[in-house]
Each structure stands twice: as structure tokens, then as C-alpha cells.
Design brief:
The protein is mainly α. It has 12 helices and 4 strands. The two termini are 20 Å apart.
């Protein structure tokens, strides 16, 4: 009996149970990974970039725990406690948020070839986040004080980027592009890549890309997965229309199986990225429980 027939024989409920159990195991592994790493670094002065990385990992664990809790369904009718439905649009919204968080982590830590390149992309991401509180109308005094403080942080980050760019072996055009990206007053988050020459020694371009272009690296598929997440995560006509058809022919369960599959792949991606690119994480990973390591590695290779 081949794999497809075995999976079919299990049925949709059995498949969901397997994927849910796998996701729980991987999530446990993520917790033990970041917690063990924190314990190992208690007496060290941890770089800001590593501290941010473990904080992102904590947030990923929280999002996965939320997904797992939501798998039990919600009670829509208060007088009927036993009638529960799967709130697929809300599950997809959490999954979309999880995807975006893993996208940011992977772009900053896994896709950059040098520390200088990583620092530039990290600082751009920080600037975009701090821009959210700049020039906000009708805010309390405490916000105005934070805005002024963060404006200075933005300028400091921008100066750091300029300093790094000045010392890189790049053309004046690319240097100006880097400074321009660091100076834009936008809050939009993108991924960034440094394109190298054939010898992989000199930077010949600095490119940006959007969330939807990270699907192949994060989910190992060429399907338009992020667009599908957006259809159901936003109040689109198609999303509302499909919600009305969601509970026919186990469509909701098929959605849940897909959500759990995507979450497993995202969780394994960030686990392997943390292990490879954060100082000291590989040693912590090696001490995880065997089933946690096995699930993470197996799912990452799927």
C-alpha cells in the first residue's frame, strides 16, 4: 500500500489528529529551544540581534499555541454548549500572522550572507517598526514623549546603516539605494536580499520582495499560499462567500488540515533557522527530546 492510500484510509479526522499532535510536539520543541538558549546565556551579554531572535521565537510559540487551542472550535450558540464550529477565517488570520513572523525571521537571519548585511536588514526592520509611532495625530502626552525618543532611535539606526554601507564594497548607486530605503517614512515590511556576483564576493544589487514571494522558502511549495491566506484573513467578498459554504462536505476540516500542515512547516523552518544562525542554539537543539528533534527535522525536509 502506497503512502497516499495509507493517508486516505486514515480519514480526514485521523489526518487532523496526526498533524495536530505533530504541531504540538514541534511547538514543545520550540519552547525548549528558546528557553534552553536563554538559560545558557544568563551570564552573558547577548547581542541585540540574538535577543530579538529569541523574542520572535517566543511570539511564534504563542501563535502556535493559539492555533492549537482554536482547533477545538468555538461555541456560537450560548444555549448549546456542545455545538462547536471551526472558526476557519480566524484560524487563517493567526496562521497569516505566524507566516509573516517567520518571514521576517528567515529574511533577517537566514538569507543574509554576512553580519554586515544582516545588521542592515535588521536595522531597516527596526526603523519600519518605530515609524508606526511617528507623526500620529491626537495622541496622549506619553505617546508624544515616546515619539521624540524613538525619532532619535530612528536617526541612530539610519546612521548605523550609513556607516556600514560606507565600508561595504558596493557601487555608489547601491549605497544611495540603501540610504534611501533607510530614510523612507513607511511602515511597510518587506524582505531584502543582497545579490552577489558570480564569485559571490561583491554585492551587485540590493533587492526587496514581498510576503507572497517567500512562500517557496518557508512552505516548500510554489502554490500562491500567502494570497489564499489574505483572501480569508481579510474581509473580502470571496472570503465571505466561502465562509457560507465552509461547513458543507467537511470543507472546514479540509481547511484545518491545510492550516495545521502550513503551521508545521513554518514552525520547523524557524526552528532550523534559529538552530543554525543563532550563537549557541545548535548545542541547545542537540539536547532536545528525540521526538521533538525528529519531528522538526522531518517536517523541515518535507
Amino acid at each position: 500500500m502506497d503512502t497516499e492510500k495509507i493517508i486516505e484510509s486514515i480519514g480526514i479526522d485521523g489526518q487532523i489528529a496526526i498533524m495536530r499532535s505533530g504541531l504540538e510536539t514541534v511547538c514543545d520543541g520550540l519552547f525548549h529551544l528558546y528557553y534552553g538558549w536563554r538559560r545558557s546565556k544568563e551570564k552573558e551579554d547577548v547581542p541585540e540581534s540574538d535577543a530579538i531572535a529569541q523574542c520572535i521565537l517566543q511570539m511564534v510559540v504563542c501563535k502556535i499555541r493559539t492555533l492549537l487551542t482554536m482547533c477545538d472550535g468555538i461555541n456560537v450558540r450560548p444555549e448549546k454548549d456542545t455545538i462547536r464550529i471551526l472558526d476557519i477565517p480566524s484560524l487563517i488570520s493567526v496562521l497569516r500572522s505566524l507566516y509573516e513572523m517567520v518571514f521576517v525571521f528567515h529574511n533577517i537571519y537566514a538569507e543574509q550572507g554576512t553580519k554586515e548585511e544582516r545588521d542592515i536588514v535588521l536595522y531597516i526592520w527596526e526603523i519600519r517598526g518605530l515609524n508606526n509611532r511617528q507623526n500620529m495625530p491626537i495622541v496622549p502626552l506619553s505617546f508624544i514623549e515616546k515619539e521624540e525618543k524613538e525619532k532619535k532611535q530612528i536617526e541612530d539606526l539610519r546612521r548605523r546603516i550609513i556607516s556600514i554601507a560606507t565600508n561595504l564594497d558596493i557601487s555608489d548607486e547601491i549605497r544611495k539605494q540603501l540610504i534611501n530605503v533607510a530614510s523612507i517614512k513607511t511602515v511597510e515590511i518587506k524582505g531584502y536580499r543582497f545579490k552577489k556576483d558570480r564569485e559571490n564576493s561583491r554585492i551587485i544589487a540590493f533587492e526587496s520582495y514581498r510576503y507572497e514571494e517567500g512562500v517557496e522558502a518557508l512552505l516548500r511549495t510554489d502554490a500562491p499560499a500567502y494570497r489564499l491566506l489574505s483572501i480569508h484573513g481579510h474581509p473580502s467578498y470571496l472570503g465571505v462567500l466561502q465562509f457560507g459554504q465552509m461547513f458543507n462536505n467537511e470543507t472546514d476540516k479540509n481547511f484545518l488540515r491545510t492550516i495545521l500542515t502550513c503551521a508545521c512547516k513554518l514552525a520547523s523552518t524557524i526552528a532550523m533557522d534559529f538552530r543554525e544562525y543563532i550563537d549557541g542554539a545548535d548545542d541547545v537543539f542537540s539536547k532536545l527530546k528525540d521526538n521533538e528533534k525528529d519531528y522538526i527535522i522531518t517536517l523541515h525536509n518535507c
